[in-house]
Amino acid sequence: MELGRAPNPPPSMTLTFEITQEWDGSPTGHDPIMITLSRSGNADSITMEVTAPFFNDPGNPGGEPGKPFWELWEYEVVEAFFLGENDKYLEVEFCPHGQHIVLMLNVVNGVRNTIKTKLPLEFKAKINAEDKTWQGVAEIPLEYLPPKTNRFNAYAIHGSDKKRQYEALFPAPSGEHEKPDL
C-alpha cells in the first residue's frame, strides 16, 4: 500500500483529490473519482465526500445502508487509508449503496493485524442512475485516526472477476508489484 504524505490538518481545512490512475499508474479511462476531506472549526470529525462514476459492478451487497458490512472490499467501493506512527492505520470503505466498513489495523513484520472492526460511522450515499454517478458523505471521528497521522492514500475498486479494477490516488511505484496489495 503506497501512501502519500499529508500534513496534519489545521482546525479548518479542505483537501480535494482526484483518482485518475489504476494501482499501477495506467489511466482509468473514465471520469475521475473525487474525494474531499474537510474539517471545520473545532469539529471532532473529518468530513469525507466522494463523487464517483457508478458502475454497479458488482451490484448491491445487500446490507443495510448506513451500517457496517463485512467484506465490503469485494464490492464497488471507494476507500481511504490514514497512516500514523508505528505502522498503525485506519481504513474506511464506502459503497454507493450506502454500506461502509471501518477498520483499525497495524502492521507488524509485514503482516496486517486487525485492532478493531465494524466501528460505527455516519455515512449516507446517493446514486444518480441518470448520470451514472454516486455521491457519499461520511463523518470520520478524529478519535479513529492513528496517533500522528501523516500519510494518506485512497482507492476505488469496481468490476467483477477479470474485469476487476483497482484505482489509486498514489499508485504503486512502477515494477514494484505484480498485482495490487490492498
Concise overview:
The protein has 182 residues and is an all-beta fold. Helix content is 0%, strand content 47%.
- Helix content percent band: under 10%
Question: Helix/strand-derived class?
Answer: mainly beta
Distance between the termini: 6 Å
Q: From N to C, what is the helix and strand string?
A: EEEEEEEEEEEEE
Mean pLDDT: 88
Shape: globular
Major sheet description? 8 strands, antiparallel
Q: What proportion of the residues form beta strands (DSSP E)?
A: over 45%
Rg computed from alpha carbons, rounded to a whole number of angstroms: 15 Å
Task: Return residue spans where pLDDT drops below 50 for at least 5 consecutive residues.
Answer: none
The count of DSSP E runs of length 2 or more, i.e. the number of strands, is: 13
Count of DSSP-assigned helices = 0
Please describe the topology of this protein.
Layout: E1 4-5, E2 13-19, E3 21-22, E4 33-39, E5 45-53, E6 77-83, E7 88-94, E8 100-108, E9 111-117, E10 122-128, E11 133-141, E12 151-158, E13 165-168
Could you characterize what this model shows?
With 182 residues, the chain is mostly beta strands. The chain has strands at 4-5, 13-19, 21-22, 33-39, 45-53, 77-83, 88-94, 100-108, 111-117, 122-128, 133-141, 151-158, 165-168. The model has no long low-confidence stretch (mean pLDDT 88).
Based on the model shown, name its key terms.
single chain, 182 residues, five-stranded antiparallel beta sheet, eight-stranded antiparallel beta sheet
